[in-house]
């Protein structure tokens, strides 16, 4: 019996318009269990989706597990240290890449370039626009609040290849994740979606086990989650590595894969 639903957002839950479809909204409404959005996104880029799904009172897992929020409180809060933030700003400058820096509800960009505007369109969030120097000064002066939950490098593939290799060679205390050829996401070491889920179970849902979770995903950062939960489901557009560890493959995210699976398997929630 399934007692909790966890789902990735981009490429999994959302349709081609980056929205939750009416079918998904109805499928969520018909499920009377905790429903957790779990994403690389920042909190502000997830709350409007919670509103659409009528689950604003449910926890959320942000930044691939670096920040877990329940009842407006952070139950997991792991950040990248200041010196490492500075290292990635320098890498971005050297290789002509855009560098976005995130902490909690804050998102900092050096300018409203193509990459920043693309993320604004995708996430419906407005960033703080200021030069890298001011952003680094701000993080230096507020070290007591922690570092960054995520850094995102964006730019041309050939420059990204060089930057990724440089970052790997420096052996910085972070996890590097190439989500697209033109995107590299940097998160704190030791975090993952499945570990964040386990912490959430301990904090909020001690009567639920990992085996009683259904999780949906599509990308490399979903692999361990899909592999470890009781019901790991890949959407049809998922990476092969995700499909390999999934117990089942549902329809493409553009064809309501999550909603379709929930409807077909309603007996598992009784």
TrEMBL record:
Return the SUPFAM superfamilies for the record: HAD-like
Which parts of the chain are coiled coil?
A: none
Q: In its keyword annotation, does this UniProt entry include Hydrolase?
A: yes
Query: Source organism's superkingdom?
Result: Bacteria
Q: Which residues cross the membrane?
A: none
Listed PROSITE patterns: COF_1
Q: Which UniProt keywords apply?
A: Hydrolase
- Cellular component terms (Gene Ontology): cytosol
- Asked whether the UniProt record includes Hydrolase among its keywords, one would answer yes
**According to its UniProt record, what is one Pfam family this protein matches?**
Hydrolase_3
GO MF annotation, one: phosphatase activity
> InterPro entries, alphabetically?
Cof (IPR000150), HAD-like_sf (IPR036412), HAD-SF_hydro_IIB (IPR006379), HAD_sf (IPR023214)
Instruction: Check the record and name the Gene3D superfamilies matching this protein.
Output: 3.30.1240.10, HAD superfamily/HAD-like (3.40.50.1000)
PANTHER family linked? HAD SUPERFAMILY HYDROLASE-LIKE, TYPE 3, PHOSPHOSERINE PHOSPHATASE
- Per its record, how is this protein called by name? Hydrolase
């Amino acid at each position: 019996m399934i007692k909790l639903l966890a789902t990735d957002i981009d490429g999994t839950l959302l349709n081609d318009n980056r929205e939750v479809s009416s079918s998904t909204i109805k499928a969520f409404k018909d499920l009377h269990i905790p429903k957790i959005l779990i994403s690389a996104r920042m909190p502000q880029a997830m709350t409007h989706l919670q509103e659409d799904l009528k689950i604003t009172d449910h926890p959320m897992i942000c930044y691939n597990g670096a920040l877990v929020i329940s009842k407006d409180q952070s139950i997991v809060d792991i950040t990248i240290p200041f010196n490492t933030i500075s290292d990635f700003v320098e890498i971005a400058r050297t290789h002509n890449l855009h560098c976005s820096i995130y902490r909690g509800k804050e998102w900092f960009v050096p300018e409203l370039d193509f990459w920043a505007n693309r993320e604004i369109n995708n996430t419906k969030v407005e960033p703080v626009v200021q030069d890298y120097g001011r952003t680094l000064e701000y993080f230096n002066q507020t070290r007591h609040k922690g570092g960054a939950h995520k850094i995102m490098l964006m730019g041309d593939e050939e420059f990204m290849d060089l930057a990724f290799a440089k970052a790997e060679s420096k052996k910085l205390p972070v996890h590097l994740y190439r989500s697209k050829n033109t995107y590299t996401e940097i998160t704190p070491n030791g975090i993952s979606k499945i570990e964040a889920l386990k912490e959430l179970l301990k904090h909020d849902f001690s009567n639920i086990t990992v085996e009683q979770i259904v999780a949906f995903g599509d990308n490399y950062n979903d692999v361990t989650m899909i592999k470890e939960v009781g019901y790991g489901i890949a959407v049809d557009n998922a990476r092969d590595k995700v499909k390999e560890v999934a117990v089942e493959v549902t329809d493409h995210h553009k064809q309501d894969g999550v909603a379709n699976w929930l409807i077909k398997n309603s007996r598992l929630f009784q």
